C-alpha cells in the first residue's frame, strides 16, 4: 500500500487538464502512435510483425483398427509421416524446444487419430494434477487444433492433460477460446516405455466437427504442448504474439481424401429428481417438496455443414447459483450464464453483443407491476420470479465458402401472479408474461485476411396485447493483406411496437439506432486505435440483449507498446495509454472525459506477475444516477478524481500461490459544500493451496469501501411516511440524494477433490454482505444543483446478505454421459432502516439465523450416437 501514499497529496487534483486540453491529448496520442510506428520500422532490431510460413503435415489413411490406449504400438503409427521441432511461445517466443514432441495423424472413414509423444528428462518432470473436465491445473498437456474450412477465423481444439483429463474449445472471433463448448470424443494417455516422457492417443470422430464434402481436402491444423515444470508452451507452427489473430497462424493438414461428412444424429435423454426443503413452518404449507423431470437434448446434422441442437423440456436446476449483490446503480445487474445449452456453441449468436441469453426464461415482464394491478383489499399471494422455458433450438454451421448461418429459437410459457382478497378465499390470476418466442438469425461471411462481414437480427414476439421487439445489426472487419491495419464497425437499428403489458399505453423507444467505428494498427510491438460511437436516446436492445445506458456519443484513442521478448529480469512488458470523452446524444451535453493507462510484466526467475493501472478523470455529469427521464435536465456532479490500482499474481506451480489486487480512488473536494472528501478503496486477496494432485482449495476475500459517496436514495420517498410527506409536497420532479458509506464484503471458498479423471467433487461456498449507512441528505435540482436537507431524519440505511453453497459430485461414466449429484443451500436477507446494520458480524449472524432453502438433486444423462448404435452387431437368440 506504500505505493498509494502519493495519492494523499491534494494538489494532484488541481493539475487536471481542461476539456479543451483533453481533445489535444487525443490528437497527441495518435501522433505518439505514428511516431512509435515510424521508430519501430526504422529501428534495425525488431523484424516486421508478419506470420511465418505455414508448415504442413500429411495425414495417412489407415484400414487398421486403432486400440485407444496411449501406447501407439500399432504398425500403422510407425509408417505415418512424423513431425516435430515445435517453437516456444511462452515464456520466451522463438526458441526451438529442447525436449522433442513427435506427432502423427491417421484417419479412416469415421474419425481422425492423433498420436503424440512428449519426451522428458524423467517421469518426475511431468506435472500431473487431477482436475475436472475442461479445467487445466498444474499439469502438462498436449492439444490438437483443427480448422476444417481453413477460413483462418474459426476452429476447434482438443486438449488431453497428462492425467487423461479432456478439455475442448470452440474458437471464433466472437467468443475467443470458448470452454463452454463440449464435444464427444475419446483419448488415452500412457508413459513412454523408458519412463522419460508420456504419450497420448486421440480419436476425434467426424461427428464432433464440421467439414465440407470434397475429394481432396487440406485443413488448418496446429499442435500445442505445455511443460508445466518450466512453465513452457510450444506450438508446432510458430505463433507470434505480435501478430493479430490466432487461427490465421496455424499450419496445414494435407492428404485427406475421400472424406464423407457422417450423419450426425445423437440423443441425450435425461432424468432428474429433486428434493427441496424450506422451513415455512406454516399451517397448511409443506416444508418438503419433491419433483421428477425428464427430457432430452437432440443433435442432428442437417447436412455436411449445419447442425440442429434442440432441448426438449429443459432442466437447469443444477446450474451454479448466481452471485447476488446489492445493486445501488441505475442499471440492472448482469449475471453470468451458467446453463449449458446457452453457453455451448453460441459463437455465432454472440456476435455484435446483441444476445444476453439470461433474457430467455428470465423474470417475467410484468413481475414488478403486480402491486399496481391490485384491487381494493387484495394482496399478492404468489408471483413467480422466472418464466418456464418450454423448448429451445439452435441451427448453426458454416459452408465451404465460409458463410456462417445461425438460427436460435426458444419459447417460454405464459406466467401469472396469483392475488387474493383479504379473506384469502377469492383468488385471481394476473398475467405477468404472455407466451413468448425468442429468435435470432445470423449470417457471417468469412473474408480473406482475417476479415468478415455479418448480419444479425434478434426478435421477441409476445402473444396477446403487449409489445414486440426487433433489432437488426450489420458488422464488419476489414484488415489489409499484411494484417497490419484494420477497420471495424457496427450499425444497429432497434424497433419496438405495441403497448405496455396489461395497459393501453404505447411502448416507448419505438425506433433507435447505434453505430460504432474503430480503426487502428493491430499487429506489431506498437499498436494503436481510435474509435467513435453513438447510441441514440431511443436505442433499446434490452428485450433480448443488454445495454446499461443509451443516449451516448463516445470516442477514445489508445496506444499500446508491448515487448514480447525477455529483457533484463522480466519475460515481457505490456503497456497502454489512452484518452476518452463522452457526451449525451440528446441533448448534446458533456458527460465525462479522462485519461487511462496500464502496465504489467512477468519476472523471469520466479514467474511473479505484477501490474498496475490508473485513471485520471475530469469532473463528471452523471445523468443516469438521478433516474429522471428524459435525460439532460438532472445530473449528479462527480468531482475530478484519480484512481490507482495494482495487482500481484504468484507462480501457480507452487503448492501455495496467491493473487492480490488493490486500488484506491481519490476525489477532489466539492467546492459547493463543506462535505468530507470522497475516497474509495478496494482489496481482493485470493490464496490457493494444492494439498496434493487430487485436493485443492481456493479462498477469495473481496472488500470494497466507498466513503462519502453521493447517490440516489434507492428506497425513495414514501407517501405513507410522515417524514417524507413534506418533501413529496415540494419536490415535484426533484430527486432525493444521500451522502453514504457503502461497505461490501465477499468471502468465497472453492474446494475440489478429484478422484479420477472422470469422477470429481466440487464445493463452492459464498457469503456476501453489503451495508449502506446514510449521513446526510440533499435535494437534487436541475443542472446539478443540490440543496442540503439538515432536518430530514428518516432512516434509509440498508443491508443485504446472501449465502450459497453449491456442491456437485460428477461422474463421467461414458463419453458424453454423466451422473451428477448436487446439493444447494441458499438464503438471503434484505433489511431497511433501523433493522439494517453496517457491522459485518451482525450481518453474518443474521444470515445464519435466516431460514435456508436446501435442495438435493440427482440427474442422469446418457449419450446415444446413431452411428454407434447402427454399427453394433445383433445379438444371437440362440
Automatic annotation (TrEMBL):
Residues 261-871 form the DUF5916 domain. InterPro entries: DUF5916. Gene3D superfamilies: 2.60.40.1190. Residues 1-40 form the signal peptide. It comes from the Bacteria. Keywords: Signal. Coiled coil: none annotated. This is Carbohydrate binding family 9 domain-containing protein. It comes from Hymenobacter setariae. The lineage of its organism: Bacteria, Pseudomonadati, Bacteroidota, Cytophagia, Cytophagales.
Amino acid at each position: 500500500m506504500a505505493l498509494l501514499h502519493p495519492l494523499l497529496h491534494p494538489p494532484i487534483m488541481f493539475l487536471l487538464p481542461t476539456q479543451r486540453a483533453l481533445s489535444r491529448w487525443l490528437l497527441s496520442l495518435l501522433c505518439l502512435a505514428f511516431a512509435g510506428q515510424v521508430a519501430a520500422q526504422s529501428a534495425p532490431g525488431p523484424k516486421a510483425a508478419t506470420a511465418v510460413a505455414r508448415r504442413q503435415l500429411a495425414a495417412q489413411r489407415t484400414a487398421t483398427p486403432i486400440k485407444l490406449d496411449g501406447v501407439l504400438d500399432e504398425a500403422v503409427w510407425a509408417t505415418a509421416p512424423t513431425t516435430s521441432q515445435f517453437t516456444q511461445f511462452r515464456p520466451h517466443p522463438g526458441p526451438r524446444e529442447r525436449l522433442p514432441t513427435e506427432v502423427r495423424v491417421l484417419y479412416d472413414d469415421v474419425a481422425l487419430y492423433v498420436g503424440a509423444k512428449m519426451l522428458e528428462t524423467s517421469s518426475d518432470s511431468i506435472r500431473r494434477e487431477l482436475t475436472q473436465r475442461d479445467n487445466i491445473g498444474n499439469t502438462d498437456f498436449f492439444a490438437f487444433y483443427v480448422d476444417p474450412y481453413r477460413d483462418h477465423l474459426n476452429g476447434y481444439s482438443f486438449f488431453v492433460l497428462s492425467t487423461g483429463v479432456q478439455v475442448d474449445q470452440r474458437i471464433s472471433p466472437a467468443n475467443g477460446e470458448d470452454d463452454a463448448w463440449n464435444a464427444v470424443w475419446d483419448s488415452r494417455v500412457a508413459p513412454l516405455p523408458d519412463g522419460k516422457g508420456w504419450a497420448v492417443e486421440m480419436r476425434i470422430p467426424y461427428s464432433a466437427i464440421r467439414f465440407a464434402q470434397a475429394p481432396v481436402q487440406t485443413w488448418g491444423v496446429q499442435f500445442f504442448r505445455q511443460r508445466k515444470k518450466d512453465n513452457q508452451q510450444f506450438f508446432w507452427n510458430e505463433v507470434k504474439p505480435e501478430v493479430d489473430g490466432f487461427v490465421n497462424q496455424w499450419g496445414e493438414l494435407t492428404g485427406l481424401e475421400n472424406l464423407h461428412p457422417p450423419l450426425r444424429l445423437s440423443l441425450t435423454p435425461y432424468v432428474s429428481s429433486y428434493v427441496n426443503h424450506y422451513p415455512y413452518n406454516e399451517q397448511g404449507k409443506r416444508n418438503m417438496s419433491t419433483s421428477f423431470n425428464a427430457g432430452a437434448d437432440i443433435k442432428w446434422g442437417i447436412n455436411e455443414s449445419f447442425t440442429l441442437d434442440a432441448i426438449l423440456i429443459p432442466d437447469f436446476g443444477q446450474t451454479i447459483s448466481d452471485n447476488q449483490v446489492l445493486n445501488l446503480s441505475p442499471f440492472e445487474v448482469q449475471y453470468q450464464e451458467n446453463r449449458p445449452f446457452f453457453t455451448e456453441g453460441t459463437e455465432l449468436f454472440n456476435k455484435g453483443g446483441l444476445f444476453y441469453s439470461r433474457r430467455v426464461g428470465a423474470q417475467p415482464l410484468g413481475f414488478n407491476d403486480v402491486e399496481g394491478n391490485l384491487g381494493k383489499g387484495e394482496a399478492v399471494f404468489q408471483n413467480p420470479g422466472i418464466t418456464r422455458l418450454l423448448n429451445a433450438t439452435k441451427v448453426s454451421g458454416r459452408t465451404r465458402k465460409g458463410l456462417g448461418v445461425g438460427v436460435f429459437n426458444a419459447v417460454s410459457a405464459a406466467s401469472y401472479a396469483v392475488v387474493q382478497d383479504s379473506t384469502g378465499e377469492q383468488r385471481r390470476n394476473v398475467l405477468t408474461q404472455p407466451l413468448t418466442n425468442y429468435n435470432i438469425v445470423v449470417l457471417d461471411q468469412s473474408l480473406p485476411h482475417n476479415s468478415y462481414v455479418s448480419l444479425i437480427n434478434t426478435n421477441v414476439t409476445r402473444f396477446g396485447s403487449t409489445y414486440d421487439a426487433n433489432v437488426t445489426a450489420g458488422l464488419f472487419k476489414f484488415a489489409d493483406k499484411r494484417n497490419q491495419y484494420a477497420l471495424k464497425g457496427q450499425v444497429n437499428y432497434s424497433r419496438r411496437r405495441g403497448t405496455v403489458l396489461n395497459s393501453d399505453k404505447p411502448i416507448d423507444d419505438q425506433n433507435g439506432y447505434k453505430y460504432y467505428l474503430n480503426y487502428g494498427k493491430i499487429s506489431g510491438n506498437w499498436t494503436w486505435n481510435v474509435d467513435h460511437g453513438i447510441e441514440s436516446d431511443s436505442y433499446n436492445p434490452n428485450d433480448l440483449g443488454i445495454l446499461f445506458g443509451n443516449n451516448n456519443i463516445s470516442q477514445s484513442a489508445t496506444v499500446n507498446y508491448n515487448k514480447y521478448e525477455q529483457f533484463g529480469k522480466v519475460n515481457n512488458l505490456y503497456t497502454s495509454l489512452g484518452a476518452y470523452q463522452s457526451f449525451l446524444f440528446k441533448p448534446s451535453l458533456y458527460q465525462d472525459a479522462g485519461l487511462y493507462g496500464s502496465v504489467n510484466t512477468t519476472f523471469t526467475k520466479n514467474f511473479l506477475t505484477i501490474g498496475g493501472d490508473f485513471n485520471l478523470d475530469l469532473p463528471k455529469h452523471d445523468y443516469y444516477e438521478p433516474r429522471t427521464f428524459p435525460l439532460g435536465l438532472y445530473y449528479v456532479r462527480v468531482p475530478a478524481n484519480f484512481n490507482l490500482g495494482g495487482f500481484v499474481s504468484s507462480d501457480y506451480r507452487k503448492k501455495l500461490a496467491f493473487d492480490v489486487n488493490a486500488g484506491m480512488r481519490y476525489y477532489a473536494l466539492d467546492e459547493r459544500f463543506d462535505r468530507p472528501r470522497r475516497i474509495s478503496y478496494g482489496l481482493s486477496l485470493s490464496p490457493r493451496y494444492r494439498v496434493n494432485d487430487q485436493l485443492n482449495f481456493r479462498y477469495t476475500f473481496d472488500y470494497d469501501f466507498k466513503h462519502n459517496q453521493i447517490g440516489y436514495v434507492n428506497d425513495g420517498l414514501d407517501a405513507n411516511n410522515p417524514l417524507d410527506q413534506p418533501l413529496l409536497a415540494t419536490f415535484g420532479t426533484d430527486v432525493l440524494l444521500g451522502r453514504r458509506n457503502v461497505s461490501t464484503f465477499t468471502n468465497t471458498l472453492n474446494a475440489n477433490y478429484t478422484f479420477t479423471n472422470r469422477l470429481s467433487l466440487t464445493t463452492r461456498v459464498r457469503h456476501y454482505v453489503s451495508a449502506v449507512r446514510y449521513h446526510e441528505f440533499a435535494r437534487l435540482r436541475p443542472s446539478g444543483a443540490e440543496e442540503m436537507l439538515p432536518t430530514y431524519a428518516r432512516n434509509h440505511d440498508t443491508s443485504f446478505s446472501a449465502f450459497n453453497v453449491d456442491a456437485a459430485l460428477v461422474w463421467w461414466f461414458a463419453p458424453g454421459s454423466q451422473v451428477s449429484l448436487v446439493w444447494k443451500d441458499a438464503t438471503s436477507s434484505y433489511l431497511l432502516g433501523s433493522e439494517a446494520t453496517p457491522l459485518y458480524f451482525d450481518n453474518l449472524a443474521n444470515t445464519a439465523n435466516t431460514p435456508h432453502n436446501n435442495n438435493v438433486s440427482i440427474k442422469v444423462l446418457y449419450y446415444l450416437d446413431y452411428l454407434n448404435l447402427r454399427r453394433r452387431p445383433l445379438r444371437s437368440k440362440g
